[in-house]
Amino acid sequence: MTVPGTPAAPPPAPDLSVVAPLYNESENVKPLVEWIVQALEGDRRSYEIILVDDGSRDDTWAQVVQAAAADHRIRGLRLGRNVGQTAAMMAGFDHAQGQVVVSLDGDLQNDPRDIPALIAKLDEGYDLVCGWRERRQDKLLLRKVPSWVANRIIRRLTGVPITDNGCSLKAYRRTLLSRISLYAEQHRFIPALSASVGARIAEMPVRHHARRFGESKYGISRTVKVLADLITLKMITTFRSRPLVGFITASLPPLGAALVFTILWLVALTQFAPVKSTALVFPGAAALWLATALYLFMLGLVAEVALRTEQASANATPTAWEVG
């Protein structure tokens, strides 16, 4: 019984959250929502649909507001400016309430009818299920070939054998998302980041459709950004548990340069005329490179101490992120 004047209890959190980032996708909002609702009609889980407007310049936000007004299961997030797909996706994850979260593109190229199959696979005991576009409907030279090359490089460097890292259609456990953070263009590296924290990962083929409305936001120019993020990811996953090794590795080139300039200085002292042998160019350069190497070494020590302190704190306060 509710006592008059008592604030109503908040509605229970849904079981499933579907997150879709949107950027200039006004024509796609309505059919996307309708498609997701149809796909989940037969599912016993309660769900919410989170539409993240990534600073669109068209009337995408107006379409999101209209959709949210028509269905209480739809929530809209509007970012202050365009921050990119990864940050928009992360904003959706942060606001998702479901214990299971599904992400997909907002351009209708992913097929929401694959969501139940992804969740069923997740229920087999996985933390992350990645879709891979079996019959991809994109341009061969501008999309398929760069994607094929990027996926091979990512698999080789990360050691995580995922077929299609660029496919946004994925299902996650809430507990996994709380253990990883994304920035820049790192949504492609979710499987590798998840593997680095011990997640159980599976993949399965999903449907893919050609874009019907609007323009693609991807191009060959993103290749440089992906490569830069890949190098960053490789450094993080390799040295996150032993930062001192990473900084010592980084200090080897400047240490080698210091050694070379020291040898040149000794040669100058013994072989050059007195006027040239007393010049400070070689010893100055050697000292500069040696200082750089020592600086990196000290940074490694600081990082190592910070890591040990964090681990000691974590051990003192047990957490319970692995449930169910």
Task: Describe what you observe in this structure.
Strand 1 (16-22), helix 1 and strand 2 form a beta-alpha-beta unit. This protein is elongated. It is of the alpha/beta class and 324 residues long. The longest helix is centred in the C-terminal third of the chain and has 36 residues, at 281-316. The relative contact order is 0.11. It has eleven helices and seven strands. Helix 1 packs parallel to helix 2 (60-70), helix 5 runs parallel beside helix 8 (222-239) and helix 9 (243-271) runs antiparallel to helix 11 (281-316). The model is unreliable at 316-324 (pLDDT under 50). The chain has helices at residues 26-39, 60-70, 85-95, 115-122, 140-158, 174-177, 190-196, 222-239, 243-271, 274-277, 281-316; strands at residues 16-22, 47-53, 74-78, 100-103, 128-133, 170-173, 201-206. The two termini are 32 Å apart. Helix content is 50%, strand content 12%. A seven-stranded mixed β-sheet has the order 3-2-1-4-6-5-7, sandwiched between helices.
